[in-house]
Amino acid sequence: MRENDTGHERRRFRRFPVNGTVRLYSGTSMWTTDLIDLSLRGVLVVEPEQWQGVPGARFRVDLRLEGGVHIGMAVAFVGHRNGGLAFSCDKIDIDSFTRLKRLVELNVGNTELIHRELSALGEHDSN
């Protein structure tokens, strides 16, 4: 069995650490926490106090990054991963996606890899 087959799906989207704060919204509930990392496909955050999410539940996430960068997206709670809470991105507005794409470009630095991830994102969304 290969290492990638041991319970962790093979990553198609490169994650990278980013400093920032996160607000999670669900109905009338709101949690504030810290960002661990993000990718074109989702975010990993520190579990906030009094967390009440269940896998599959939908949330609104507002990311506030260093330098005043703001990214908002609709997400689904995936579960506990790597010491945090993992969320997959369901919807993102064009301005937030442009900011996220720019962050990926700055952190990945490999144009070919970025194009592959963008292509994989399109394939994932069409399934």
How is the secondary structure organized here?
Layout: E1 16-17, E2 20-26, E3 29-38, E4 42-45, E5 58-65, E6 70-81, E7 84-92, H1 94-108, H2 111-126
Antiparallel strand pairs: 1-3, 2-3, 2-5, 3-4, 4-7, 5-6, 6-7
Structure commentary:
The chain has 127 residues and is an alpha+beta fold. It has a single domain, classed as Thrombin, subunit H, CATH 2.40.10.220. Helices cover 24% and strands 41% of the residues. The protein is built from two helices and seven strands, in the order E-E-E-E-E-E-E-H-H. The chain has a six-stranded antiparallel barrel. Strand 6 and strand 7 form a beta hairpin. The protein is globular and about 40 Å long. The N terminus is likely disordered.
Total DSSP E strands: 7
CATH architecture: Beta Barrel
Main sheet specs: 6 strands, antiparallel, barrel
Give the proportion of residues in helices. Answer: 10-25%
Task: Give the overall average pLDDT.
Answer: 82
Query: Rounded to an integer, what's the Rg over CA atoms?
Result: 14 Å
- Here the CATH topology equals Thrombin, subunit H
Structural classification:
alpha+beta
The termini sit apart by 27 Å
- From N to C, what is the helix and strand string? EEEEEEEHH
CATH class: Mainly Beta
Residue fraction in strands: 35-45%
Structural domains: how many = 1
Shape: globular
Low-pLDDT segments, ≥5 res: 1-11
The DSSP helix count reads 2
Name the CATH homologous superfamily.
predicted glycosyltransferase like domains
The order of strands across the largest sheet is 2-3-4-7-6-5
